[in-house]
Amino acid sequence: QVQLVESGGGLVQAGDSLRLSCATSGRTLSSLTMGWFRQALGKEREFVAAITWGSAITVYDDSVKGRFTISRDNAKNTVYLQMNSLKPDDTGRYYCAASGTIVNPTISGRYDYWGQGTQVTVSS
Questions:
Q1: Which of 4, 26, 60, 79 has its CA at 20 to 30 Å from residue 49's CA atom?
Q2: Mind listing the pLDDT tens digit for each residue in 81-104?
Q3: 73: enclosing H helix or E strand
Q4: Rounded-to-integer distance, Cα 106 and Cα 110, Å
């Protein structure tokens, strides 16, 4: 019912910035929770940030707080992740996820829909 497509990843240097986008389609998203997760090679998927589509309440993992900003544009049906002061430890495949119910946004298993991911690589 919901399709998610991430874009904006790339290979950058430490200290650089990237803006990831998650384009959504398939249904109205006013009641959904949107999250960003990332997964490094050989490691488990971890929570990055989340936002409620309707009220724009945000939650961040401590590792990115103060550097990353999640936002959404209702008119464009798109969620963004602005990433500043990137570090090599930020390297991973970043996934956009959506849930149609009230969830703990930090738990990946609570989300119903996932995008294909976009790779972010930060060199030292």
A1: 26
A2: 999 999 999 999 999 999 887 779
A3: strand 68-73
A4: 8
